Amino acid sequence: MAEEENVYSSAVKYEGYVKFSDLYKFCYDWLNDETGITAKETKYEEKLKGDTKEIKVEWVGDKKLTDYFQFKMKINFVIRNLKKVTVKVNGVDVETNSGNYEIKAKGLLAKDWQGKFEMTAFYKFLRSIYEKYVIPQAVEQFKDKITGDCDEFLQQVKAYMDIEGKRLK
Questions:
Q1: Which domain holds residue 151?
Q2: Is there a contact between 86 and 94 (Cβ–Cβ < 8 Å)?
């Protein structure tokens, strides 16, 4: 079984105008285009509360780095008080959403993700020697890459929400 190490965990929050469907598409496209990760939706939950909704979405995706290392990413969206609103932009009515948005990202480094070193106790011992003495620099480089990709994702999401929110005010 692959050993997964949590390398990155953070979140961004935003309150204001952002069309949820556009945000969803932006996040999916950015992950796919910029990191090579194709996210799979593992959870979608929607609760109605009067004229507002609460939406929870969970994505999981991964990308092969080498035959030994794999980049895994988990994304969680929690949107509270989401409601449809109409705002005027340059004198034109535009339909959008208003709500409290929270997007969490978690980056993991999976080692021996194919389980090649899990066959015997001797292979497990070799794996520990390999990681400790042969490839410690590679491990750090991959951790830095995962941290950078996850952090850049959240920065891009925040920038997108800020720009959209200002455009719709």
A1: 3-167
A2: yes
Backbone dihedral angles phi then psi of residue 26, each to the nearest 5 degrees = -60, -50
Q: How many domains does the chain have?
A: 1
- pLDDT tens track, the chain, 169 positions: 678 999 999 999 999 999 999 999 999 999 999 999 999 999 999 999 899 999 999 999 999 999 999 999 999 999 999 999 998 888 889 899 999 999 999 999 999 888 888 778 888 888 888 888 888 899 999 999 999 999 999 999 999 999 988 887 6
Phi, psi of 33 (to 5 degrees): -75, -40
Distance CA 44, CA 30 (A): 20
Six token digits for residue 41: 């939706």
Distance, in Å, from the CA atom of 23 to the CA atom of 139, rounded to the nearest integer, reads: 33
User: Residue written as tokens 């935003």?
Assistant: 14
Give the CA-trace dihedral at 43, 48, 53, 54, to 10 degrees: -40
Considering the entire predicted model, what is its pTM? 0.91
CATH of the domain at 136: 3.40.198
Rounded CA separation 138/142 (Å): 6
What does each C-alpha distance from 77 to 5, 44, 157 come to in angstroms?
Answer: 22, 9, 11
User: Tokens at residue 13, please?
Assistant: 């929050």
